[in-house]
């Protein structure tokens, strides 16, 4: 299979199922931002981090591919004629619960927050904070897309919870590397 197809040279791209849309559409922006987030998670994994965190990130990356595939599929093409889903694995409530469990576990290992903190720490912690911001953008775009077409609510909920996970991930990585959190004190 070739990487280039030349079918997008005129500013359109094909959705799952064959429909072509402008590369500037909200749909493309939504799943493109999910792809950007996925790549950023790969960057975090390129650092030496706790192997358990790396495993969690791999699971999340696979989930983001599924989420992106669903966003890239027109609603009327989500199911085959026999009623089976076109995308075999989609984001489910169980995936959201898994994120919540990971968040709770990580928070249990961290000092309780009493103030907002400035994003930072070492490089992988800082990248986790950037990934959180990308995730929030993906969520905003997906909310906008849901105003134009039907989107399963689990997708928005997953992105919302994932941004929380990425915030705690950044804190955990910084703590693991003995980086003190810098508190934001209003007026300072």
Automatic annotation (TrEMBL):
Signal peptide: none annotated. The keyword NAD does not apply. The keyword Nucleotide-binding applies. InterPro entries: CblAdoTrfase-like, CblAdoTrfase-like_sf, PduO-typ. It is an enzyme of class 2 (transferase). It comes from the Bacteria. Homotrimer. PANTHER family: CORRINOID ADENOSYLTRANSFERASE, CORRINOID ADENOSYLTRANSFERASE MMAB. This is Corrinoid adenosyltransferase. It comes from Empedobacter falsenii.
